[in-house]
Amino acid sequence: MTEQFAIAIMAAGKGTRLKSKRPKVLHEVGGKPLLAHVIRAAAEVVPAENIYVIIGHEAEKVRVALAHTGVKFIVQAEQRGTGHAIQTARGELAKHQSFLVLSGDAPLIRSETIRRLRDFHLSQKAAMTILTARPADPTGYGRVLREGATDRVAAIVEQRSLRPEHANLGEINSGFYAFNSAPLFAHINRLSADNVHKEYYLTDMAAMLVVQGERVMAFRADDADEVLGGNTIAELVSLDANMRMRKARELMSQGVTIFRPETCVIDDDVQIGPDTIIEPFVQLLGKTTIGEDCRVRSYSVISNSVIGNHVTVRHGCILDGSAVANGALLGPYSHLRPGSEIGEGAHVGNFVETKKVRLGKGSKANHLTYLGDAEVGEQVNIGAGTITCNYDGVNKHKTIIEDGVFVGSDSTLVAPVKIGRGAYVGAASCVTTDVPSDSLALGRAVQVVKEGWARKKREEKKKR
Ligand code: UD1
Ligand code: CA
């Protein structure tokens, strides 16, 4: 028996009401699986080795998806209800004097609330404490029946078992509890599956412990939204909106301006510096970091990228796995694919696609260009329509463009190829061999002019 607090997270259910092939707890809200949010909140309260996640439906998928968190997994092979889930975990949980039980499908829970539930439970010397809430609409949740106006609970009544006299019960069971091991495990085997679902309900422990003369308490969460669960797709979508609005508010409290935040999709791990402005309909996904004094204009989608300070991302840019240095200017409609590194003050403009490219300080590729597998130095000008031909059908090859190079419009640079420092490439050249520094490369057919040709042509046509 250890004094260390444990946390069990119930995540074995199938999620029948989602009508989905994917297990419920792997459905994503805020860009991450439901369960990942609950684990994160729990891990802020106890060390990961004291967290037991109860898995069952598609257990291996769930285990693989969350293995990186360092929690322990317990398999409930057959899902016979929340009470049965805790019975399954008895071997581990009974080693702890007390523990918390969380639902893996309620991702808005905050660590602060988990901590307060634990502290309340310990201070009350209760056998069971139920985290409760009063949401606007309690439909679907188990209701908490208190003993008069006290904090003591008489029973939890599941939605399906509600009787007319329960109609006014607005306080719900959140599915989050604190237990003392001894009284719980002394009686848990007496749960019966004599109900509509033929399941062992953990919620029945409340009345059972009361009958045994144990203290069962209610602890009400200030914010009912925090305990909302997701049982249907519509509920998951609403949790997602809720979570993203919470994220937007947090960023705004740190000095970020987000216009029409309800239209933006900002993942949990995104960080943004103060005085940055995010316009409507922007998506910031994954581990994206944006510095100070930036502006991200509408319809841009930025994933897993790092953006410095004073950067402008104009309308409709797509960035993935890229890094953008201070003062750079992107878009409108630039596509930065993984491995793009845009230097300080560099410009990447209209309909320019980059991939695995380093674009040096002050360099510009402003129009209709593809730069792939390239190293571009500083103060380089890439003319409109320039293309690095990086792929020969079998292998990818590199293009090196040194500092101060000027590449004229509509040039094709057939890699592997190097253009030396300060060189010029004439417009519409097809460059197939290295260009030495400070030279001019012209790789295009010599122009032919036939004077009067057009006039003659027109006259011939008239005669016919
Ligand atoms: C449960 C509560 C209900 C409460 C609500 C809060 C019961 C009987 N009812 O209902 O009072 O208001 O949560 O959201 O507990 N699970 C397992 N093994 C199982 C069955 C479920 O691990 O055999 C897991 C599920 O994956 C889920 C959690 O337990 O994460 C809750 O189960 P769910 O079926 O969603 O319960 P609710 O009907 O929401
Ligand atoms: Ca649920």
Task: Supply database-style keywords.
464 residues, alpha/beta, Spore Coat Polysaccharide Biosynthesis Protein SpsA, Chain A, UDP N-Acetylglucosamine Acyltransferase, domain 1, 14-stranded parallel β-sheet, 11-stranded parallel β-sheet, 39 strands, binds calcium ion
Give your account of this protein's structure.
By secondary structure, this protein is an alpha/beta fold. The protein has 3 domains: 222 residues, Alpha-Beta Complex (Spore Coat Polysaccharide Biosynthesis Protein SpsA, Chain A); 98 residues, Hexapeptide repeat proteins (UDP N-Acetylglucosamine Acyltransferase, domain 1), CATH 2.160.10; 86 residues, UDP N-Acetylglucosamine Acyltransferase, domain 1 (3 Solenoid), CATH 2.160.10.10. The chain has 9 helices and 39 strands. Strands 13, 14, 16, 17, 19, 20, 22, 23, 25, 26, 28, 30, 33 and 36 form a 14-stranded parallel β-sheet that branches. A hairpin with a 6-residue loop joins strand 8 and strand 9. The longest helix is centred in the middle third of the chain and has 21 residues. The relative contact order is 0.07. The model has no long low-confidence stretch (mean pLDDT 97). Bound molecules: uridine-diphosphate-N-acetylglucosamine and calcium ion. Calcium ion binds next to loops.
